[in-house]
Amino acid sequence: DAGITQSPRHKVTETGTPVTLRCHQTENHRYMYWYRQDPGHGLRLIHYSYGVKDTDKGEVSDGYSVSRSKTEDFLLTLESATSSQTSVYFCAISQGQIGNTIYFGEGSWLTVV
Amino acid sequence: DQQVKQNSPSLSVQEGRISILNCDYTNSMFDYFLWYKKYPAEGPTFLISISSIKDKNEDGRFTVFLNKSAKHLSLHIVPSQPGDSAVYFCAASVTGANSKLTFGKGITLSVRP
Questions:
Q1: Which residues contact B15 (CB under 8 A, 6 or more apart)?
Q2: Given A87, B30, B42, B50, which is the most exposed site by the fewest CB atoms within 10 A?
Q3: Cβ contact, residue pair B43, A99, below 8 Å
């Protein structure tokens, strides 16, 4: 296990409501990422963090925000959920070294109705 | 523009035979490549990687080949086992780019007993 915990693991929410997904790591890795997986699209990067309070956008960041106030926690927020954000969300971590591998959490299944 | 392409969505092979999963990329800056395996309802798990300074890397039944001139890599699984049935994602990164990975859409491998 890579020491990554995602919560909640499953959530159903209504369109227009805010949703926050949490990623917690026990590895003290510098980098943390949020990906989403959708049929026909593979895994796409939403946002990532390269340190406390240091974040940047990925390729599908619209409608999402993130925060990292501690090394171990990376939060993904959907300010106003839409049906297009129904997806499986994966948190990942890495040490950020050359040739480094990233390790994934078990996923959070989000359904927006 | 998709920078990592897995053009075949699925592959079916007989147990004991070789599975060959292909991946192409367009970004010549990519210098580190990885394969991930994903079972349903689980997070992706790291399988094997290769640096652009090599053309082959082997780990047990898994071998990854890299052809830089063709911008092509392949994963060979020999012999294939029913437990290998999963979705396989090819990923690529640029050293120094915050270890961000760009993923292909994945290929579903089915190994028939």
A1: B79, B80, B81, B82, B111, B112, B113
A2: B42
A3: no
